[in-house]
Amino acid sequence: MPRIRLIVSAVASLEDAAAAVAAGADAIGLDPGLFPQAGLAGSEDLAAIALALPPTVTPILITPALTAGTVAQQVDAAAALAVRLTRPFAASEYPGLKRIIRGRKIIQSIDVADTEAAARIEAYGPLADALHLTVDAPHQLPACRDLAALAGLPWILRLTDVSLLSAALALRPHAVDLVRAVEDRFDLAALSRQIAAFVQP
Question: What are the angstrom distances between the C-alpha of 105 and each of 75, 97, 130, 154, 159?
Fold first, then answer.
């Protein structure tokens, strides 16, 4: 059975990245919004983190941009190998984005609580490479698997409450996304071991 992968997001320094890699992260989420400096300087910092990662760890750019050209520029500047689109992205922009970023993976974020979530997921099914779903409460967990099944895509579960991890793992997402910015509230290495050791009953 495929193992559940670990993504650590909100990485804002080389030290954060090293800690995530040491904890067993398969991918790192790089959010330009966490950097005080904008423009070229911020992109250089993102790229420095991305390029310092071992080959087995994927740098993922996190962006709210809404056009293919802007997203592609950000991906290139950050030396990212994948991109997560945090806002609903026009289907008409997808072909151009795929062409420009040359095979790098596109992860589409979906708000599970959005009344349009099912319709959005069906639309993104033929376009995105994976879905990113955020869970804020236990009652949202069953809906995540049902929604992901609509698209037939790998799905990533972002947890805002790590106490939900065991229940989330039972749903067998492709990956779990933990946020480095709140690391003081949990033991990242311990959670990584829990994910690695999980076996579906």
Answer: 11, 10, 8, 12, 21
**Tens-level pLDDT at each residue, the chain (201 residues):** 678 899 998 888 888 888 889 888 899 999 887 776 655 556 788 899 999 999 999 999 999 988 999 999 999 989 999 999 999 898 899 999 999 998 899 999 988 878 888 888 888 888 999 999 988 778 888 888 788 788 788 999 988 777 788 888 888 889 999 876 544 556 777 788 888 777 655
DSSP-based helix, strand, coil % in the chain, nearest 5: 45, 20, 35
Cα angle value 183/184/190 (rounded, 5°): 60
**How far is the CA of 177 from the CAs of 95, 160, 196, 201, in angstroms?**
26, 9, 14, 22
Find where tokens 């589409």 sit.
108
d(CA 123, CA 126): 7
Token pair, residue 183, equals 């690391």
* Pair 175, 26: CB distance under 8 Å: yes
Structural contact between residues 85 and 62, judged by C-beta atoms closer than 8 angstroms: no
